[in-house]
Please model this.
Amino acid sequence: MHKKKKKRRALKMLSVSGVGLLFDSMDVGILAFVLAALQAEWGLAPTEMGLIGTINFIGMALGAALAGLWADRYGRKQLFIITLLIYSIATGLNALATSLIIFMVFRFIVGFGLGGELPVVTTYVLESAPQRNRAKWVVWLQSFWAGGALLAAVISYFVIPEYGWRIALFIGALPALYALYLRRALPETPAFTRQTNQQTIGQKIKLLWSASYRRTTFVLWLLWFASVFSYYGMLLWMPSIMVMKGFTLIKSFEYVLLMTLVQIPGYFTAAYFVDKWSKKATLVTFMVLAALSSLTFGLSPNVWTLLISGVCLSFFNLGAWGATYAYTAEQYPTSFRATGTGWAAGFGRIAGIIAPYLVGLLISIGIGFPYIFTMFFTMTMLAVLVVLFFGKESGEEA
Model:
């Protein structure tokens, strides 16, 4: 009876945390559609569209690094709630922007909250889940990201063409109300509560590059850089790329909605294989298949190839992301787990700063999509090789 009660409590924790992550994903997903709408309404150049994504990721990089440190110091629950409040309130204010500069200022603040929440909620679920299945639980948590992306696609498809992008962003402010519920619903993780040895911030950062963890940190930072570069370079541009290939705004939203639908089975398939195989094997397999799908998408000669490769890209890319979080979170001990995860994510966001602007720049100087998506393929395969030959299986002694 006690075991059943404990499992029910853990499932509640997973679902409550997952809804918070769903809102996070919804906001990121809506931005991709808002960019396409802003291009039409404000006449933005490709470089300006890329700059919005870049500003967003500067905020995410800082948020991930600082929230990870603070979560190891003050607790996972507190930082989860604070970061959720920051990005949801800033999203609402973002809807009031009347110029590109004001829009980018609020996107920076939104990015700070978004970037901070991701490593913190992952650490929270890992430390609260049953020991034997915690890798699977982390991937299940990430499946809520696909739910948020789907919700973003639905909102964008039905709301933006009819009511405009501002209403879509106002909807993105609703998580602020959810944060109030989280204060009562979530306990602190047992692992953090049991901690007695509190290292200083400087000591935690130093440990990441100590002899025991240097190889682990190098592998994770490169993995995150390549993953963020490819994922966000493609995601933020997906609706706009469809429009540039000759589809109407509404039709491109329809295709992206269909591609988004397959992200959920992608996550659940990855969750199955992290238990069946291992986290490392699952991560490498899904990344290779995502890389091949991205190359096919970029080289697509017709709408059917574009659609099928886009569906495969969404399936394998999001499955790889679930495996990435499960792989990363178990590489460090409790005392600086959030710091390690947050700094890997923060370094990865540097790629998010570069990729959206770089894609806009390449398009503006006439570089074709085949070359751009070959770049994503190459970056992903580089990370695959590093993880394959230098990465340790999660849970091994570093």
Observations:
- The two ends are 37 Å apart (CA to CA).
- The first helix runs from residue 2 to 42.
- DSSP finds 17 helices and no strands in the chain.
- Residues 87 and 114 are 6 Å apart (CA to CA).
